[in-house]
Structures are given as C-alpha cells and as structure tokens.
Write a structure and sequence with these properties.
This protein is of the alpha/beta class. It is 51% helix and 12% strand. It has three domains: 180 residues, Rossmann fold; 69 residues, N-(1-d-carboxylethyl)-l-norvaline Dehydrogenase, domain 2; 41 residues. Bound molecules: nicotinamide-adenine-dinucleotide.
Length: 314
C-alpha cells in the first residue's frame, strides 16, 4: 500500500504534484536541492491551495491537510528512505535522471516504486543501469502543467511491471481525483503530448500563413474542436459523426495539412527576437506588465471551471 510519497524537485511540476497527493491524505516528502526554490515552495503551495478554496473547489480543511502532510527536505536520503512511491520532477536531462535513480535505488526499500514525470525521455534508457528487480517497479507517471489543475496522468504500462503493482499506482491516482491513462508503448511524447503537438503544429502554421488572426485561430480551437473534445474524445466523436464521412474528409484534408518536421518559422522568429510569450511580455499576443498576473490568474480560473465541469463527463 502506498502511504508515503517522495517528490523529487519542487519546481514548476514538483510542488503541484506534491500538494495534489498531500491534500488527498498522503504523507509527502518534498526534496529540493536548491535553497531558494525549497524556501519558496511552502508559500507557493499555500497560495495555490488557497486559490482552490477561494474558487470553491476544496475546503479550508483540505487546505490544512494539504499543507500539514508535506515535509520539505534538503537531503535526498532522509526524504526517500521511507517512501513507498517516488516521483521525480527534476530537469529534463537523461544523465541527471539516471544518476538520481541510481542513488534512489541505494536509498529506498526494495518495494519502493519509482516514477518519472519526464515529457520526452525514454523510460528504459533512464533505468537501464538499475537492477532487474527494480526495473519491475519503475514507470513514467506524466502530469500536465499546472499539475494540481489538469486531471490527466499518463501511466506507462510497458510490460516491465506486474499487474498488481501497476494497479496500486493506478488506484493512487484515482484516489487523488486524477484521470489516469494507460500508455502501452514506450513512444516519445506518450499519448497526450503527441495529440497536443499535432494540433499545435497546425495552429502555428495557420498563424504563419495568415489564414486567420491569432485571436481567431485560438477562438476556433476553443469554441470548435476543443469545445467538443473537452466533453467527448476524438474517436467517439468520429463514431458519432459517421466513419464514412470522416474517412472521406481525412482523405481530402491530410494532403493539405501542415506536415513540417521542424517547429514553424513564425514561432522560430519570435523566439529569435526574444519574444518568449508572457514571461517577456510578447509572444503571439502582447502582455503589458500590468496585465501579466491577471492573464495568468484568469487562465487558472477557467481551468477550475473546466475541472468542475469535467466531473460530469463520465
Ligand atoms: N513544465 C512543464 O510544463 C512540464 C509538464 C510535464 C512534465 N514536465 C517534466 O517534469 C520535469 C520537471 O520539469 P519542471 O518544469 O518542473 O522543471 P523545473 O526546472 O521547474 O523544476 C525542476 C526542479 O528540480 C530541481 N533540481 C535540479 N537538480 C536536481 C537534482 N539533481 N535532484 C533533484 N532536483 C533537482 C530544480 O532546482 C528545480 O526546482 C521534467 O522532466 C519535465 O520534462 C514538465
């Protein structure tokens, strides 16, 4: 049974993963080697939990549970020695994650399950040097950002783990109100990011050729495909529309869709000019200083609305 969870790294993903587990009653040990990040994490966690209270998603008691169940650590051994499940959310570098898992293998109990939140690295490369018995308890558990608001968690089911161990982790995510997805093949981007980037490629391309304004491209996405797909998946939508219709449309559309194998030049030019989006004040859209925090908060508020609505999606 999983009781104690160690989260490695308290950055963008790690702190949100930590308070998702802690507010659902799990004991969380949050390890962060960098002092500035470590000391900032508790305030960040409290602010996010308070936001969920203010939006009526959790109770003040949930907030207190979330805070009280997290202990910060600056020492990996102390943080991980009692863990039943360890999830790493440290920088996306293969050697760093290999080294971390090798250390954890020495620190942790033989039964501890290791998970990586990697977005792009291969699980079996990451754990190649671990003993065979440990490899049977390693997996990808891929969250979306912001981790505490987006329900999906992609769980690798690549054949190295026995059914019982996998189910234990699956049940953990269900208990934390996540929507776990079983990913059966060790493919880059798992499932969700492949879908995301296929869609993103076409959006950026449409902006590049001026097919519509950036505002209207986003509007088309929000109130068209994503509006429908937020409630009902693509495969089911196709079934409902009629596969004969979809077949004919795909045969017509696929030859004219963007199939570039590099990021589109509109995006490249923005990045080269130093326009990195909200963090620099300019991307596809402009974000004057006074608007940035508000824009970010409005995004989170819409996600909470969506999170509440998604409870009805079945
Ligand atoms: N940011 C996203 O949108 C996102 C989404 C899904 C998955 N991921 C994946 O999650 C992981 C973490 O990404 P992030 O965006 O939170 O990165 P981040 O840089 O915000 O956080 C990483 C944290 O790890 C800490 N760290 C550095 N070296 C470490 C070490 N040796 N041991 C432990 N911790 C160390 C850093 O101090 C930092 O706080 C990556 O694998 C990334 O691919 C990121």
């Amino acid at each position: 049974m999983i009781h104690t969870i160690t989260v490695v790294g308290a950055g963008t993903m790690g702190h949100g993963i930590a308070h998702t587990f802690s507010r659902h009653g799990y004991q969380v040990h949050l390890y962060e080697p960098f002092e500035a990040v470590r000391t900032a994490a508790p305030d960040k966690i409290r602010t996010e939990l308070q936001f969920m209270v203010d939006e009526g998603y959790i109770t003040p008691a949930d907030l207190e549970t979330g805070i009280n169940n997290i202990t910060m650590f600056d020492d990996l051994e102390a943080a991980a020695k009692d863990a039943d499940y360890v999830i790493e959310a440290c920088p996306e570098k293969l050697e760093l994650k290999q080294e971390l898992f090798a250390q954890l293998d020495k620190i942790c109990k033989p039964t501890t399950i290791f998970a990586t939140n990697t977005s792009s690295l291969k699980l079996f490369e990451m754990i190649a040097q671990l003993p065979e018995e440990r490899k049977k308890r390693c997996m990808v558990s891929h969250w979306y950002n912001p981790a505490y608001l987006i329900p999906i968690a992609e769980l690798s089911k690549f054949g190295n783990m026995d059914e019982e161990t996998f189910q234990e982790v699956y049940d953990l995510y269900v208990a934390c109100e996540k929507q776990p997805v079983r990913v059966l093949k060790d493919i880059a981007g798992m499932v969700a990011n492949r879908i995301l980037h296929a869609q993103a490629r076409e959006c950026f391309y449409l902006a590049e050729i001026g097919a519509a304004s950036p505002e209207d491209i986003d509007k088309a996405l929000k109130y068209g495909p994503c509006f429908r797909n937020a409630t009902t998946g693509m495969l089911e939508v196709a079934d409902m529309g009629g596969l004969d219709i979809w077949l004919a449309t795909e045969d017509n559309m696929f030859p004219v869709l963007c199939n570039g194998d590099k990021a589109c030049s509109a995006m490249r030019e923005l990045v080269e000019a130093g326009h990195l989006g909200i963090k620099t004040g300019q991307g596809f859209f402009s974000y004057p200083e006074e608007k940035r925090t508000r824009t970010q908060m409005e995004f989170y508020k819409r996600l909470i609305v969506q999170l509440k609505a998604s409870k009805a999606y079945g």
